[in-house]
Design goal:
The complex is a heterotrimer. By secondary structure, chain A is of the alpha+beta class. Helices cover about 30% and strands about 25% of the residues of chain A. Chain B is of the alpha+beta class. A five-stranded mixed beta sheet of chain B has the order 2-1-5-3-4, with helices on one face. The chains are: A alpha+beta, B alpha+beta, C alpha+beta.
Chain lengths: ~300, ~190, ~725
C-alpha cells in the first residue's frame, strides 16, 4: 500500500486490551489482516516506500498507542515491567530504569533522534522482528520475557524463543505483545551498549551490542548479550555466552572470544555496510565488552 | 473521521480519513504550511511539531492518534512570547535564528525551531539552566540541515537560551530586528 | 552609514522563521492537477511501445508521451537529451511518459497500469570502459568533452627532477540533498507559459521552455518561489521538471503541480561527477615543486548537460594552489548509462583538488616534510603564474589563511606530536590548501552581459530587480546591503523583487560563485548611478532627498539598468586554454582534527579550522555560514555519503540510507575570515565564495585520518568500511 492509499484504511481505537484481543480474534478467524499501530515510526515509513496496489480493501488499523494496559514502567522487587507501548523517551526519563538498567536509556538515546524516541515503542520494535532493532538487542541482553495476550489467554516466552526467522516470530495473528519483564541486574552489575551506526544520530545499526554481566569472585555469574544487524534475527551469541558464563574472567582469551563470536554471527552485505566489516566489528565489540568488564 | 485537537492553543476540528498523516492535516485543512515535508519518512525532521510537548515527526503520526491532544507548529511559536504584534510574531528563539544565521534556505528551520523549543522548555523553563553545546546538538540531531554546517544553528539556540526569561522578547526583537517583516512573501504572482 | 561589513538581520529571515515564506509546495492553483513521471526500468535499451492497460479507467487522467512534445530536447549546451525518451533509453529513471490527475490515489494507481516494452541493450557503467569504447552509448565516440593545458614542458622536466612521485586518485558521486525536493507549478494562459518553482536559474528554464514549446521570450514567465537549497542541484535540472509540468498542463489545460518524492529526487536528478585522476609530479629534494602532469577521466552520465563546463573547471583547478614551472593537464569526460551528472557546488574542482592535495601529502611523506610546510612554501603569491600562465596581480590572501588556520588549530604542536593513541582511539590532524576561481571561466562574463535594474519607488524606497536567486545563501540580504550603502539609504528602504523572467533582467545564472562578486557589483553600479541622479536632482531643485527621489520617479527617471562592466584587461584563449582563467580567486586553508576508532574505523571530526580569503565579507555571519555549510558537505562527501549502484539503479535513494551528517556528526567550526580585497569586487572588494568551501574538506579529513592511523586514502569515500578494507589490505601486504 502506498502513501495515497492511507486514506483507505479504517482505524479503531479500542478502549481496552480485552477489546483489542476480541477484534483481533474475530478478524483472524475470518483471515483478515489487522495492524496494531503504536508509534507508527515503522508502519508509516513502509507505506511511504511501498508501491500502489489496486486493492480497495485496506488493513484495519487498531490504535493501541494509548491503551493504559500497554503503558507504563513499574518495578516489583527485582522485576521490572515495561509495557509494550512504552516509548524510548519514557525509558530515557524513568528514574528506576536509569538507576537499575542504564542499558535501556543508553540504547534509547541511540534510536533515531528525539522525534523517533518520542513515538517509537519497545513493543513495536519487537513486533517488526527486524534484526536491526536496537531495542530488541537490549531486551536480548537482559534475557527479557515477552508477554503475549489473546482471547485464548496470556502466555509468556523467553525472548530467545520469540523469533522463528527473518522478520518472523511465534506471535500468532490474534496475539498482542503486552509488555516485557526483566530481572534487573544487581548492584554493581556491568551493562554495556554500543551502537556502530551509519552516523551518530538518525542511524540504523550496522552492528550494535548490548551486554549485561555480573561478576562474583572473578567468575561471570550472569551474562546476557544481544547483537543487532549481524544475523537474520537479533543475535543472542550463544557460543560466546557458553564460553564465558561461570568462567573466571581472566581466563577468557580474546582469541577464544573471537572464534565464538564468529560462530554466532552471519552478517550480510547490504546498502549500509558489508558482511566483512560487520564480522570484524562484531568481534571488536565483544572484545571491548570483556575488556571493559575485566578492567572494572 | 472527525478528530478534535488543539493546534497552537486553539481548538480545531478536522474531518479526514483517520490515517491521514498529521503533516497533511496541518498543511491541508488546517492551513498551516509552515511545517515542511523533506522526506516523508521521519529522517529529515522538517515536519517536526510538538505533540503534547514532545517533538515528533508529523509525517509519521496518524491524525486520528491526535484526538484530544495538543499540537504546536512553527506558527504557534511566536505567540508564546506574547505581544506578537509588536514583534512581528517572532519569539526570541525565532529572532535569534534571524540574527545569528541559524536560517539559510529556511526549509529545515520550522522543524529545527520546534526541536529547539522543546529543549529550551526542558532546560531553561523546566530546570532553570542553559543547555550545553552537546545537549543542543542532541536536541536537533533529528533535524537535517544541508546549508549551515549546524554551527550557526547551535549558536542561535545558545543565544536564545541565554536571553530566554531574561529579556523582554518584544523589546529585544524591536531593537535587534528593526525591520522585521514576517508577513507571507512570494505567493503566486 | 554602513551596512556592508555588518551582519545585519537576514531580510528574508522573519518570514522563514514564522513559517509564512511560501515554498512551491505551499502554493496551489484552482483546478490544479498533480503530475507524476514514469521512468525507465532499464539502464539502456530501445523503447518499442508504451502500453496503457485498457482495463484501467483512464477518465480524468492526462497522459503525455514523446509524441506530445513539440521539440523534444532539453535545451542546454548540446541538444542531446530528450524531454521524454521516444526511442533510445540511456539511463535508468529516464523519463518516458507523464501522467496527471487531481486525485493522488488515482494517480498512483494509474502509474501501475502503464507498461513499457523495451528491448534492452548492453549498458556501460565504468567510465574507463566507455573511454575504451567497449560500447558506443553516446555517439559518435562517448566523449562529452576534452581539454588540455600546457605550460613549459612537463614531460622533459619530470625526466630531470630529483624526486618524482606518481599516484592515482578517485572520487565518487554525491547527491546535493537540498532539503526541499525539486518542484514546480506550471500552467498556460492567454499570456503564455508560466512556471513557478524551486529554481536556481529562472532564465535557464525560460530558455528550455522557449525551445521545447517554440515560444518567444515574452510568452514565458518563470518565477522563483522561495527555494529550499540548491547547491547546483537546481541549476539545470528544474528545466526538465518544468517542461514535464508544462506538457501536462498543455494537454490537460489545467495548472499542474509536480513535486518530487525524496526517493525520486535522489534517483533521477543530477549528482556530482565521479572522476579518476592520475598525477605525476617532480620536485627538488628541498620540496620545491617543479612539474606536474595530470590526467583526468570524468564520468558524465547519460547526457551532456553541463559536463563540459564541469570538466573545464575541474582541469583548471587540477594543479592546485601552487607554483609549477611545467604543467601538462589533460581531461576527458565520457558517457555512462547512469543519470546525467551535473552541477554541484565546486563544479569539478573538488574532484581534482582532492587528487592534487592527496598527492602532495604523499610527496611530503616521501620528502619527510610537514605537508603544510611543503604546501605553504610552494603556494601561489602575487606575481606568480598559474597553470594557465595567468599572472596573479592582486587579492591573494593564502599566506594569511595558512597562518591563521595553523595558529588557531595549534597545528605545529599537534602535527609534531604524531598520532595520539589512547586506548583504541587515534587522533590526527591534516590540512588542505586550495583556491577556487570566482565567477565564470575565461570570457564567460563578456559573453553573458549580466544585467540588473534598480527602481526608485515612491516614498524614498528602492527596489532591486535581478535574476540572481536567493536559494539560502543570502543574496537578498547582501544585495540590499550593497544597494543601501551605495545609495546612502537605510536597509529598510530597500526591497528585493521576487525573480521572474517577465519582471527582472537576465543577470546570468546563480552559479559559479559569481552572484555577490559579479552581480553584486552590477547592483552597486546601478545604485551609484541612481545616487548620482538623486544628488543632481537635489542640487538642481533644492528638494530634500525623499522628494528628489519621488521627482525622479514622476519623470520616469527612477530606473537604472546596468550591464556588467567586464574587466577589460583579462585575456583568455579558449583554443589553447591559456590566460586569465578567472578574474580572481578565493583562497582557503582547512585544517581538520579527527579521532579514528581503531576497532570500528569510525571517524569523528573533533575540530575544523577553515580560513578563507573572501576579499571582503559583506555579511560576516552569512559568509561564515556559507563556509561552514560548504565544508560540512565536503566532510559528508568524505565520511558518510555514497551512492550504492546496481546495474545503473540506485539502491539507497532514501534519506535513511543516503547518509548526510547530523548536528552530532558535524564538528565545531572555527571559521577565520581573511580579507584581501579584489579591486573590482563590490562593497570594497568582495570575491565569490560559494563554492570555495566545498574544495578543502575532504582532503583535510583524509590527511588527518592518515596522520592518525597511517591509512592513506587515495579514493573517496573514507567510510569505515573503506578504511577497514584498506587497513586489511595493508596488513596483508
Amino acid at each position: 500500500m502506498s502513501l495515497p492509499e492511507l486514506s483507505l484504511h479504517g482505524l479503531e481505537r479500542p478502549d481496552s486490551l480485552g477489546s483489542v484481543c476480541e477484534r483481533l480474534a474475530e478478524r483472524a478467524a475470518r483471515g483478515e489482516k489487522t495492524v496494531l499501530l503504536a508509534g507508527g515510526t515503522d508502519w508509516f515509513v513502509e507505506r511511504h516506500v511501498a508501491p500502489a496496489t489496486d486493492g480497495s480493501e485496506a488493513e484495519l488499523v487498531l490504535d493501541v498507542s494509548r491503551l493504559p494496559e500497554l503503558r507504563g514502567i513499574s518495578a516489583s522487587g527485582d522485576t521490572l515491567w515495561i509495557g509494550a507501548a512504552t516509548t524510548y523517551l519514557e525509558l530515557r526519563r524513568h528514574p528506576v530504569v536509569a538507576a537499575r538498567v542504564p542499558l535501556l536509556p543508553a540504547m534509547s538515546k541511540d534510536v533515531g533522534a528525539v522525534q523517533i524516541q518520542a513515538r517509537g515503542t519497545l513493543g513495536g520494535n519487537l513486533a517488526t522482528a527486524s534484526p536491526a532493532a536496537d531495542g530488541v538487542g537490549a531486551l536480548a541482553a537482559l534475557d527479557a520475557t515477552v508477554h503475549l495476550l489473546s482471547v485464548r489467554g496470556p502466555r509468556s516466552i523467553a525472548i530467545s524463543d520469540y523469533f522463528t526467522g527473518y522478520k518472523r516470530s511465534v506471535r500468532a495473528a490474534d496475539e498482542v505483545i503486552t509488555g516485557f519483564t526483566v530481572q534487573m541486574p544487581g548492584e554493581g552489575s556491568f551493562q554495556y551498549w554500543r551502537k556502530v551506526g551509519t552516523r551518530l544520530a538518525q542511524a540504523i545499526s550496522k552492528v550494535a551490542l548490548a551486554g549485561v554481566a555480573e561478576v562474583s569472585d572473578g567468575q561471570v555469574t550472569r551474562l546476557g548479550l544481544g547483537m543487532v544487524s549481524v544475523a537474520p534475527t537479533t543475535a543472542f551469541l550463544p557460543t560466546v555466552r557458553a564460553l564465558a558464563l561461570r568462567r573466571p574472567l581472566d581466563r577468557i582469551a580474546d582469541s577464544a572470544l573471537d572464534a565464538a563470536t564468529q560462530a554466532d554471527v552471519s552478517p550480510i552485505d547490504d546498502v549500509r555496510s558489508t558482511g566483512d566489516y560487520r564480522r570484524h566489528v562484531s568481534g571488536a565489540l565483544v572484545r571491548e565488552f570483556f575488556r571493559t568488564l575485566r578492567s572494572r | 473521521m472527525i478528530v478534535r485537537l488543539e493546534v497552537n492553543g486553539e481548538r480545531r476540528l478536522v474531518d479526514l480519513p483517520p490515517l491521514t498523516r498529521l503533516l497533511d492535516a496541518l498543511r491541508g485543512p488546517l492551513g498551516l504550511t509552515g511545517t515542511k515535508e523533506g522526506c516523508g519518512e521521519g529522517e529529515c525532521g522538517s515536519c517536526t511539531v510538538l505533540l503534547d510537548g514532545d517533538p515528533v515527526n508529523a509525517c509519521l503520526v496518524a491524525t486520528a492518534q491526535c484526538e484530544g491532544r495538543s499540537v504546536t507548529t512553527v506558527e504557534g511559536l511566536g505567540a508564546l512570547d506574547g505581544r506578537a504584534r509588536e514583534t512581528g510574531g517572532l519569539s526570541l528563539l525565532q529572532a535569534a535564528f534571524v540574527t545569528e544565521g541559524g536560517a539559510q534556505c529556511g526549509i529545515c528551520t520550522p522543524g529545527m525551531l520546534i526541536a529547539a523549543e522543546a529543549l529550551l522548555r526542558e532546560t531553561v523553563d523546566g530546570a532553570n539552566r542553559k543547555p550545553t553545546d552537546t545537549e543542543i546538538r542532541e536536541a536537533v540531531a533529528g533535524n537535517i540541515c544541508r546549508c549551515t554546517g549546524y554551527q550557526r544553528i547551535v549558536d542561535s539556540i545558545a543565544q536564545a537560551a541565554a536571553l530566554r526569561r531574561r529579556v523582554s522578547p518584544a523589546d529585544w526583537v524591536r531593537e535587534n530586528l528593526p525591520f522585521a517583516k514576517a508577513e507571507g512573501t512570494r505567493g503566486l504572482l | 552609514m554602513s551596512n556592508v561589513g555588518t551582519s545585519v538581520p537576514r531580510t528574508d529571515g522573519p518570514s522563514k522563521v514564522v513559517g509564512t515564506a511560501k515554498y512551491v509546495d505551499d502554493l496551489s492553483m484552482p483546478g490544479m492537477l498533480h503530475g507524476a513521471t514514469l521512468r525507465s526500468p532499464v539502464a539502456r535499451g530501445i523503447l518499442k511501445r508504451i502500453v496503457k492497460d485498457p482495463a484501467f479507467d483512464w477518465t480524468g487522467i492526462t497522459f503525455v508521451d514523446a509524441t506530445d512534445v513539440p521539440v523534444n530536447v532539453v535545451a542546454l549546451i548540446q541538444d542531446d537529451q530528450p524531454v521524454l525518451a521516444s526511442h533510445e533509453i540511456r539511463h535508468r529513471y529516464e523519463p518516458l511518459a507523464l501522467i496527471a490527475c487531481d486525485d493522488a490515489l488515482r494517480l498512483a494507481r494509474a502509474a501501475r497500469h502503464v507498461t513499457f516494452e523495451i528491448e534492452p541493450l548492453p549498458a556501460i557503467f565504468d567510465p574507463r570502459a566507455s573511454f575504451e569504447r567497449r560500447e558506443i552509448v553516446a555517439p559518435p565516440d562517448n566523449v562529452f568533452g576534452r581539454y588540455r593545458i600546457t605550460k613549459g614542458d612537463a614531460e622533459a622536466a619530470l625526466a630531470s627532477c630529483e624526486v618524482v612521485v606518481s599516484g592515482t586518485y578517485s572520487v565518487h558521486h554525491q547527491e546535493q540533498l537540498y532539503i526541499e525536493p525539486q518542484g514546480v507549478i506550471a500552467w498556460f494562459d492567454e499570456r503564455g507559459a508560466h512556471v513557478h518553482g524551486s529554481i536556481q536559474c529562472p532564465y535557464y528554464v525560460q530558455k528550455g521552455v522557449k525551445k521545447t514549446f517554440v515560444l518567444t521570450e515574452s510568452d514565458v514567465d518563470v518565477v522563483q518561489t522561495v527555494t529550499g537549497g540548491g547547491f547546483g542541484g537546481k541549476e539545470e535540472y528544474p528545466t526538465v521538471i518544468s517542461l514535464h509540468a508544462l506538457l501536462l498542463a498543455k494537454k490537460s489545460r489545467r495548472p499542474v503541480k509536480m513535486i518530487y518524492d525524496r526517493q525520486e529526487d535522489i534517483e533521477a536528478t543530477t549528482k556530482r561527477h565521479p572522476a579518476e585522476i592520475g598525477i605525476v609530479t617532480g620536485c627538488d629534494r628541498d620540496g620545491t615543486l617543479r612539474a606536474i602532469s595530470i590526467h583526468v577521466l570524468m564520468d558524465g552520465g547519460a547526457y551532456v548537460t553541463l559536463t563540459p563546463v564541469v570538466l573545464s573547471r575541474g582541469i583548471l583547478h587540477a594543479a592546485g594552489a601552487y607554483r609549477w614551472e611545467h604543467v601538462l593537464a589533460e581531461a576527458v569526460a565520457v558517457a555512462t548509462n547512469t543519470p546525467p551528472n551535473g552541477a554541484f557546488r565546486g563544479f569539478g574542482a573538488p574532484q581534482t583538488i582532492w587528487a592534487v592535495e592527496r598527492h602532495l601529502d604523499k610527496v611530503a611523506r616521501q620528502l619527510g616534510m610537514d605537508p603544510l610546510v611543503l604546501k605553504s612554501n610552494n603556494v601561489l603569491r602575487v606575481g606568480d603564474t598559474t597553470a594557465t600562465s595567468q599572472t596573479l596581480k592582486e587579492s591573494v590572501g593564502i599566506g594569511e589563511c595558512i597562518e591563521k588556520a595553523r595558529t588557531a588549530s595549534d597545528w605545529d604542536r599537534k602535527r609534531a606530536l604524531g598520532p595520539v593513541v589512547q586506548g583504541r582511539k587515534a587522533r590526527g590532524i591534516g590540512a588542505c590548501v586550495f583556491m577556487h576561481g570566482a565567477g565564470f571561466t575565461g570570457s564567460g562574463e563578456r559573453r553573458l552581459k549580466g544585467r540588473v535594474a534598480l527602481d526608485l519607488l515612491l516614498g524614498g524606497r528602492v527596489r532591486i530587480r535581478t535574476a540572481s536567486t536567493d536559494i539560502g545563501q543570502g543574496t537578498e540580504t547582501v544585495f540590499s546591503q550593497i544597494a543601501a550603502d551605495a545609495l546612502g539609504l537605510p536597509m529598510s528602504q530597500v526591497e528585493f523583487l521576487q525573480p521572474s523572467t517577465a519582471r527582472v533582467p537576465d543577470s546570468g545564472p546563480t552559479v559559479a560563485s559569481r552572484t555577490v562578486m559579479v552581480v553584486g557589483s552590477i547592483v552597486e553600479a546601478a545604485a551609484r548611478e541612481l545616487k548620482e541622479r538623486i544628488d543632481a536632482e537635489q542640487a538642481a531643485t533644492g528638494l530634500d532627498r525623499r522628494r528628489a527621489m519621488d521627482a525622479l520617479v514622476f519623470r520616469a527617471m527612477g530606473t537604472a539598468e546596468h550591464v556588467y562592466d567586464t574587466p577589460r584587461d583579462l585575456e583568455w584563449d579558449d583554443a589553447t586554454y591559456r590566460g586569465d582563467a578567472y578574474p580572481v580567486y578565493g583562497w582557503g586553508c582547512d585544517i581538520a582534527e579527527v579521532e579514528v576508532d581503531l576497532d570500528t574505523f569510525e571517524t569523528k571530526v573533533l575540530g575544523f579550522w577553515a580560513a578563507a580569503d573572501v576579499g571582503k565579507a559583506i555579511h560576516p555571519t552569512h559568509c561564515k555560514g556559507q563556509i561552514e555549510g560548504g565544508t560540512l558537505q565536503a566532510i559528508g562527501w568524505a565520511l558518510h555519503e555514497q551512492i550504492v549502484w546496481k546495474d545503473g539503479a540506485i539502491l539507497n535513494g532514501r534519506m535513511t540510507n543516503y547518509i548526510v551528517p547530523t548536528s552530532l556528526d558535524a564538528p565545531p567550526f572555527t571559521t577565520l575570515l581573511v580579507e584581501a580585497p579584489y579591486s573590482r569586487g563590490p562593497g570594497g572588494g568582495a570575491k565569490g565564495i560559494g563554492e570555495l568551501p566545498m574544495d578543502g574538506g575532504a582532503p583535510a579529513i583524509a590527511a588527518a585520518i592518515e596522520h592518525a592511523t597511517g591509512i592513506s586514502m587515495d579514493n573517496l569515500p573514507c567510510l569505515p568500511e573503506d578504511l577497514f578494507e584498506r587497513a586489511r589490505k595493508g596488513r596483508a601486504a
